[in-house]
Amino acid sequence: MSGGLMLYNVLCLAVPFSVALLLAALGENFNQRAGVFNLGCDGIMCMGAFLGFMVPFTLKGGPWAAYGNLLGIGAALAVGAAMGVVFALVTVTFRASQGIAGIGLQMLGWGLAGTLFRHFVGGVTGVEGMAAIAIPGLSRIPFLGGVLFNHNALTYTALLLVPACWFLLYKTPWGLKVRAVGTHPRAADTMGIHVDRIRYQALMLGGAMAGLAGAYLSLCQAKMFSDDLVAGRGFIAVALVYFGRWSPLGILGGALLFSIAQSFQLSMQVWGIKFPYEFAVMLPYVLVIVVLAVARKARQLGPTDLGKPYNREMRF
Amino acid sequence: MNKNKVLYSGAIILAVTLTAALLVALVLFAIGASPLETYKTILTGPLSDLFGVTEVLVRSVPLLLVGLGIAISFRSGILNIGAEGQIQMGVIASTAMALAMPHAPKAILLPATLMAGALAGALWGGIAGWLKARLQVNEILSTVMLNYIAAQVYTFMLRGPMLDPTELETGSGTPQSMRLPESVFLDQLIPGTRIHAGLILALVAAVLVWMLLWKTTLGYRMRAAGAGAKAARYAGVPVERYLIVAMLLAGGFAGLAGAVEVTGVHHRAIEGISSGYGFAGIVVALFGALHPGGIVPSAVFFGVLLIGADMTQRSAAVPANMVLVLQGVIILSIVSAQSFLRNPYAQERFFRWLARFSAASTKAGKGAKS
User: Fold this and answer.
1) How far apart are CA B351 and CA B336, in angstroms?
2) Does residue A199 sit within a domain?
3) Given A26, A313, B27, B249, which is the most exposed site by the fewest CB atoms within 10 A?
């Protein structure tokens, strides 16, 4: 096998792998830019994955079957936004400690998805999922065509969301407000920005995107649901936000780095290079710790009030 | 603490419990189970006979140990979410220790086994502590990642180097280690049940943790580092060092819990041995107000919940994942309530409201009499 073909295979796998991480991390970026550290991302992804699977699964064979995937994605977005509101209620309105609250939301989402799945479905069942759409013309470009232009609709959406999120964050009034409430909420408050309201909105958007990331996992990647489908990707997404220095482009780079590492490891097994399966699985998690240690100097680039609840009545 | 404050805290705790119970009842309702019946099964089922009570205590031993460790870390300002992985590391190390010298006398082997478990857990937790102190790696993320890594190491060990040779011969392929020598088993407290001497160990540990945190300089400094890192550093406390110490201790308690599970209950390393104790331990610690005096009853309470949830799975067809939902809701409610507990204005408002309410009700009472 030539080196070029090997690279092609690795990259073709890497792009779909990166989508869930990318969507969740872009969403988490809005949360963190607004000053809220949402570790519940993983739990939201579980619920998104469950509903993304559940809706088309229930509609299968009915008159609405054709819209199953679309409705599933809609449900995942809605549940994500709803869980974002729950998290906002706890951390913004009640000003709870965000780290522990995030773990609580993660347990809630994970447990709820598992409970509902066991009750309504029970065993392992597949769904048809979303098919790949080759973009006419572009998909025939040698090398790049296969890597970039032969995927399902959600993959294209995720890639287009990178510039869209950048635009929203840096070129719109709302994006400026988000960055303001995460950097200096008191100053933002003085200028008449509703700090809590902006944080609610950012958490809803971030939650919806995490839900979408979950739906991608169940509808496009695995085409099924199980308890351990998400497998900590929500936490990896949070780490990617640090690694990407709170910029959509940096996050894209981080997501690609992770997925290339993952697809390289899978490809190595295909090529017959043997090492224990368990070590291959733990690789991305080790990578997260390394990435966090390396990216520590970037902290000053991030939102300065990250993780601090804002209390209007507090005096200094 | 004055009377008002106790009353206020009590009201908040009651409100938290009711909110959590109500939210979970909604979920139960959604999956078609009767909330009242399910709660009744969960809370009274496990306590209906002596065996049930001892089973609750068996579950509460690891919960108590893990919860104590987590309380130490939370009090020191470092959030240890990695107890699950630390337990598994403790299980591996203690099993390896017991299998390495099966003929040693009990007086040497048992302490050595427990120590090995605690040490392995401490090292695993210490990694996260060191990463936090030296490289400012967020401890929540690193401990969660270490959980996933430990889970893989654990399966690797059980399927590879530590696999029971007889499993290979019979070909059943259950991933589990060899049975430990009997000299390393913890004594049974009541014959015929599974309750073991680990209970006493855990209770002693609770007293020791209380003494450590509130009666020693080390504990005082750790709590100072947790209460206000900047102020503590200004007062000359090397905060980073105490972060590492706190994580070593937290991991050590989790590892000890793993060792106690092996030597007291399962007598070999099996798959799924920690069964969520690491996460439940967080809730136990928070529910016990991060104080050993609260964590002991809280561990027993969650022991009831875990056994009760198993029972509902059999009788009422409520999946056991429901426990995770319950834990998540409880965590969210507790951390939300803390903002009320800390807020003197909210307390004032509460008493004004209470005064108005009682005035209105006495007026109504007088009106009814006349």
Assistant:
1) 20
2) yes
3) A313
Q: What is the ipTM of this complex?
A: 0.90
Q: What angle do CA A35, A45, B31 make, to 5 degrees?
A: 120
Q: Return the biggest CA–CA distance within chain B.
A: 88
* CA atoms lying within 13 Å on the CB side of residue A78: 9
Do residue A96 and residue B336 have CB atoms under 8 angstroms apart? yes
**Rounded Cα gap, residues B242 and B219, in angstroms:** 9
Q: What's the domain range around A8?
A: 3-124+152-301
CATH code of residue A93: 1.10.3470
Residue A34 lies in a domain: yes
Tell me how far apart the alpha carbons of residues B87 and B67 are, in angstroms, rounded to a whole number.
12
Number of domains in chain A: 1
Name which of A109, A119, A235 is nearest B141 (Cβ-Cβ). Answer: A235
A-interface mutation test, from B141, B157, B305, B349, most A Cβ less than 10 A away: B141
In this complex, is the C-beta atom of B178 within 8 Å of any C-beta atom belonging to chain A?
no
Residue A133, in any domain of the structure: no
pLDDT tens by residue, chain A, 316 residues? 567 777 888 888 888 889 999 999 999 999 999 999 899 999 999 999 999 999 988 888 778 877 888 899 999 999 999 999 999 999 998 888 898 999 999 999 999 999 899 888 877 787 877 777 777 777 777 777 777 777 788 888 999 999 999 999 999 999 999 999 999 999 999 999 999 999 999 999 999 999 999 999 998 888 888 888 888 899 999 999 988 889 999 999 999 988 988 888 887 777 777 777 788 888 889 988 998 888 777 777 778 888 888 887 775 5
